[in-house]
Write a structure and sequence with these properties.
The chain is mainly beta. The protein is built from two helices and 55 strands.
């Protein structure tokens, strides 16, 4: 049998007995009001029935109940704990009979959280759990804000809700809102924009288990500006000995920024000067006041309203060394070249790198300030570059000092050198197709040669002497420059009975080879050579120039013989120190000794550092030389023998007359009591007594 309380039923049994039953309905509960410290309930009944009172209970048993009437369908509970979930039960009572129990769950409103703190981050550490990943950690680059807070000052809060808004009022993407414990006092927001303002609001809330669902407290808020993003990789460009440029890419900078800061770090030999850019947002900075061969380290930060990016980008600048100074070619041959230079000032060097173009197998390296390059090819033009190498890095090179030179070409191989007498017969002369002659006895020289065995050359240079005669002209005139494929030439001279000196050289880029010299006898009708050589025609022209701050003389001598003379000097240019220097000139037609040219450097008193040069020609005129003594030197255009005589400037005296005296440039002095002293680089001498300078 079922019983329905609050409803009166008349039941008749088979035996005719009648019984009455009261069925009491269960109340329908609702929440009328809720605060942090109180909850008010009300309820209704499904039908209007008579009842005596209601029994209302709360669990946990906390707080107080406001006064109420027994039949009042409402209860107010006060002094409750904020944020707490309470269980309410209500039963209807009539004539000591209870209805079924109605149950309602409701939370009090939690109080706001405390001490909200915000911080920015740019990486997240993620942990992959499980037996396969075994808590593997990896990081993700993302710009975000982390919010932390404390629990409410009173009561509890089992759940929290956090929101973030940027300065434009758009909600940013929350990170992990559904992946963390709602009761955790930490939230992270990711995918934010560097340099923007963000406002974070946090609420205490119920977890939604009560009758009214989730209830939130008042929110607490805080604002934060994300720092600007880290700068991208710094590119070091245009490095010199004292300056450098730093550059970076705008496309790789997220968010907002208004400036960049360059900070010098570490130990450096000087303080870097950072030049002011045209705009503070210029994507680069120029550095100056650097020292050659030095290493500098700088950190570059992005700025926004004076706030730095969290991290800077490190850039390393290694300045170049200074280039070598005064690179000069001091000597060269067909297969080698010797160069010298001076060490640059202000650079601590490890050495030098020498590169030639066309290149050898690999660049050469030396710690000296000179080098001889071997294995070069004859007649080839080389570009030679010398670079300084820093000792600090051993890899940083200077921009380089360059010179261009051409090795000497190889000389040709002369195969024929002969002279044919033509004679005075007009018919014979016409056979040789000569230019009309004024001379009675012309001759023809025939020269043939083969090309050099290796290397390169542009032309052949053919020269001969004498090529000035008493009458008539030679043809062609000397010197002759012939094409690089020519291997034969003929020279017509208006005389016979002479000894002709001919030389053949190769030319490459205006550099001449060593001469191949041939003495060719041009016999006359009688087959004998004539000695009609006029020393009066022996002239010579040289050019002398002070160089290297007037500490040396550059003596430039013609590279081919002049008139009746031939000179053998090797190179056509020589650099001489300040002392007398004599060049020997051979006159092949003269019985006497070789003629000479002597250079006397002098410094006038009015210009002590600027030398003047006198040039004298030593002819066949004798000084005190006896007929049987062979002269071997020249003094003021006079011949003398050095075993018997001494030349002091322009004075020639016998040695036995000056047995204890010697020459001090322009003066005689007694070597026992005096000394010749040099007072400056230009050989200005003076004589002092007692042998001390």
């Amino acid at each position: 049998m079922s019983f329905f309380r609050g409803i009166c039923l008349l039941l008749m049994s088979c035996c005719g007995i009648v019984t009455s039953v009261i069925v009491i309905p269960r109340p329908i509960l609702d929440v009328a009001d809720v605060t942090s410290y109180s909850i008010t309930l009300n309820w209704t009944l499904p039908i209007n029935e008579l009842f005596d009172e209601f029994v209302v209970e709360i669990s946990p048993e906390e707080g107080d109940v406001l006064d109420f009437e027994p039949k009042e369908m409402k209860r107010s509970f006060i002094n409750l704990a904020p944020g707490t979930l309470y269980t309410f039960t209500v039963r209807t009572v009539r004539q000591e009979t209870f209805s079924d129990t109605s149950v309602l769950l409701q939370d009090t409103v939690p109080l706001p959280p405390n001490e909200l703190e915000l911080r920015s981050f740019d990486t997240l550490v993620l942990v992959l759990g499980g037996p396969y990943f075994q808590d593997t950690e990896f990081t993700v680059d993302t710009h975000g804000v982390e919010a932390t807070w404390g629990e409410p000052a009173d009561g509890i809060s089992e759940c929290y809700h956090a929101e973030i808004f940027d300065e434009d009022g758009l909600q940013a993407i929350p990170g992990g809102e559904g992946e963390v414990d709602r009761g955790d006092t930490l939230r992270q927001f990711v995918n934010l924009t560097p340099g923007k303002n963000y406002k974070v609001t946090v609420y205490s809330s119920t977890c939604g288990e009560g009758h009214l669902g989730e209830l939130r407290s008042d929110g607490i808020s805080s604002e934060i500006r994300l720092p600007p993003a880290d700068p991208p990789t710094i590119i070091v460009e245009e490095v010199t000995t004292t300056t450098s440029e730093l550059r970076w890419d705008k496309e790789k900078i997220e968010g907002f920024y208004d400036d960049f800061e360059v900070v010098q770090v570490g130990d450096s030999p000087s303080s870097i000067v950072i030049d002011d850019p045209a705009s503070r947002t210029t994507l680069g900075r120029n550095l100056s006041n650097l020292i050659p061969c030095s290493k500098y380290e700088v950190d570059v930060y992005t700025l926004l309203d004076g706030q730095r990016s969290k991290n800077g980008q490190r850039a390393i600048v290694e300045t170049l060394p200074n280039d070598p100074i005064d690179l000069v070619l001091v000597d060269f041959t067909e297969s080698s070249a010797t160069l010298e230079w001076r060490q640059p000032i202000g650079s601590t060097l490890f050495g030098y790198i020498i590169q030639t173009t066309p290149p050898p197998e690999k660049p050469l390296r030396t710690n000296e300030t000179s080098i001889t390059l071997e294995g070069l090819l004859p007649g080839i033009q080389y570009k030679i570059e010398v670079k300084s190498v820093c000792q600090l890095t051993e890899q940083t090179l200077s921009t380089g000092t360059t010179t261009t030179m051409t090795t000497k070409p190889l000389p040709p191989v002369v195969t024929t050198s002969e002279c044919t007498y033509i004679g005075s017969d007009d018919e014979t002369k016409s056979l040789y197709e000569l230019v009309p002659w004024e001379a009675p006895d012309p001759s023809r020289i025939n020269l043939t040669w083969s090309k050099p065995t290796s290397g390169s050359w542009d032309n052949f240079l053919v020269d001969y002497s004498p090529y000035e005669f008493e009458q008539g002209l030679s043809s062609p005139s000397a010197p002759m420059i012939l094409g690089n494929d020519v291997i034969r030439t003929e020279i017509n001279i208006p005389v016979s009975g002479r000894v002709i000196t001919a030389s053949i050289r190769t030319i490459s880029n205006n550099v001449v080879s060593e001469p191949v010299v041939k003495s060719i006898f041009c016999g006359g009708p009688d087959g004998e050579s004539s000695l009609r050589c006029r020393s009066i025609l022996l002239y010579w022209t040289i050019k002398i120039t002070p160089i290297e701050n007037a500490t040396k003389l550059l003596v430039e001598i013609p590279s081919y013989p002049i008139y009746n003379a031939t000179v053998f000097m090797g190179d056509s240019n020589e650099v001489l120190m300040f002392y007398n220097h004599t060049f020997t000139i051979r006159n092949p037609c003269d019985k006497g000794p070789a003629s000479r040219i002597t250079v006397f450097p002098q410094c006038p008193s009015i210009l002590p550092f600027c030398p003047t040069i006198t040039r004298r020609l030593c002819t066949n005129r004798r000084g005190h030389v006896e007929d049987l003594v062979i002269p071997d030197a020249c003094c003021n255009s006079k011949l003398y023998n050095t075993d018997n005589e001494v030349c002091c400037h322009s004075k020639l005296l016998k040695k036995f007359e000056r047995s204890t005296e010697e020459c001090c440039v322009t003066r005689w002095y007694n070597r026992k009591t005096q000394k010749c002293c040099e007072t400056n680089p230009l050989t200005k001498y003076h004589v002092v007594k007692n042998g001390a300078c």
